[in-house]
């Protein structure tokens, strides 16, 4: 490689609200893992669009702080401590949500667990811990909310937060890759099975969206991530939480009533940049690259 091309700054996300404040005003939405990170960002987006939001998680103190933040946006918000791995706790979550808000219209499967580990060092318990949170947790919550919607005869929406490595796989996160692939299979299966009930099942696969929780578990040394974004993300930057929140609101709302069984990737083009055979050439100086291309072109008539 000679010198790398500089990436032009991409358009930055809007700071002002994108959606009308009443877009979700008649909707009650549960967000698992809604007390921090991307779950909290999506909960904020849902509140700003008028939804009543119920956040759940294992840490009551964290949930309490998140409720204060969300209420300051004017949202009607509840926090219900819950471990998504336990079906009985999910049943209680559904029951208490109905008691407090009257019904449930939507679910965001966001709760996750992950850590870096060489597969040959992974214990059975380690695999179990992540798969139980991500796959079993998403299935537990989806089935419970789905049963509620079907019994009510009401339409609804389930959104699951995945990752592009749900379909590519990834080194060093085997349990997470297996679990997220399972949640993608759940999304597509139920999209077909429950479409007749008006229940839409979709997913989002976010690329690099820094959060304290994820970065502390997935970036061993700062030097290992430096330069990676520039090299791997065609847009040349990480994602902003509001960008993910806007996509989640869109997919949960009547702005996308025909979207079903889809997984929308939001990663600045990152996973595809490693896929194309010649994509590495984007890292070369563009003008020099064009000169090389022209030099390779056969002369007319030769
Ligand atoms: N590397 C290897 N194995 C690990 C590990 C690590 N970093 N962390 C935990 N484990 C293993 C433990 O050794 C244990 O397995 P064993 O019984 O076979 O020895 C198993 O995982 C359960 O550990 P424990 O700490 O009891 O799990 P937990 O249920 O309290 O926590 C985790 C689950 C491990 C997923 C934990 O990281 C967590 O709670 N994460 C939630 C937040 C999160 O990860 N967010 C993801 C942001 S990307």
Rg on CA atoms, Å: 21 Å
Helix segment tally: 12
CATH topology: Rossmann fold
- Overall residue-averaged pLDDT value: 94
- Return the CATH architecture: 3-Layer(aba) Sandwich
The poorly predicted ranges are: none
H/E element string? Answer: EHEHEHEHEHHEHHHHEHH
Strand order of the largest sheet: 3-2-1-4-5-6-7
Largest sheet: 7 strands, parallel
Q: What is the β-strand count?
A: 7
CATH homologous group name: NAD(P)-binding Rossmann-like Domain
First-to-last CA distance:
30 Å
The domain tally reads: 1
The CATH class:
Alpha Beta
Q: Rough shape? A: globular
What proportion of the residues form beta strands (DSSP E)? 5-15%
Helix content: 40-55%
Brief sketch in words of this structure:
The model has no long low-confidence stretch (mean pLDDT 94).
Descriptive notes:
It contains 12 helices and 7 strands. It has 302 residues and is an alpha/beta fold. It has a single domain, classed as NAD(P)-binding Rossmann-like Domain (Rossmann fold, 3-Layer(aba) Sandwich), CATH 3.40.50.720. Strands 3-2-1-4-5-6-7 form a 7-stranded parallel sheet, with helices on both faces. Strand 4, helix 4 and strand 5 form a beta-alpha-beta unit. Helix 1 crosses helix 10, helix 3 runs parallel beside helix 4 and helix 4 runs parallel beside helix 6. The longest helix is centred in the middle third of the chain and has 29 residues. It binds coenzyme A.
């Amino acid at each position: 490689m000679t010198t790398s091309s500089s990436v032009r700054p991409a358009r930055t996300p809007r700071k002002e609200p994108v959606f009308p404040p009443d877009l979700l005003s008649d909707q009650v939405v549960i967000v698992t893992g809604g007390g921090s990170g991307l779950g909290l960002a999506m909960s904020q987006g849902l509140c700003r669009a008028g939804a009543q939001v119920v956040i759940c998680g294992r840490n009551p103190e964290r949930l309490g702080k998140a409720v204060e933040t969300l209420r300051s946006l004017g949202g009607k918000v509840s926090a219900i401590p819950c471990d998504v791995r336990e079906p009985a706790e999910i049943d209680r979550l559904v029951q208490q949500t109905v008691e407090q808000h009257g019904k449930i219209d939507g679910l965001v499967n966001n709760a996750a667990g992950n850590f870096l580990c060489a597969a040959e060092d992974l214990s059975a318990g380690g695999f179990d811990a992540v798969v139980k949170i991500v796959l079993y947790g998403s299935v537990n919550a989806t089935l419970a909310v789905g049963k509620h919607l079907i019994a009510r005869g009401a339409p609804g929406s389930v959104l699951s937060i995945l990752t592009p490595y749900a379909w590519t796989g990834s080194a060093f996160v085997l349990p997470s890759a297996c679990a997220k692939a399972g949640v993608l299979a759940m999304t597509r299966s139920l999209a077909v099975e429950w479409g007749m009930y008006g229940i839409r099942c979709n997913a989002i696969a976010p690329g690099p969206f820094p959060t304290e929780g994820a970065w502390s578990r997935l970036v061993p040394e700062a030097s290992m991530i430096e330069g990676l974004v520039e090299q791997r993300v065609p847009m040349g930057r990480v994602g902003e939480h509001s960008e993910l929140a806007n996509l989640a609101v869109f997919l949960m709302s009547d702005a996308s009533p025909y979207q079903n069984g889809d997984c929308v990737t939001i990663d600045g083009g990152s996973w595809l940049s490693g896929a194309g055979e010649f994509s590495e050439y984007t890292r070369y100086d563009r003008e020099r690259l064009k000169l090389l291309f022209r030099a390779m072109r056969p002369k007319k008539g030769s």
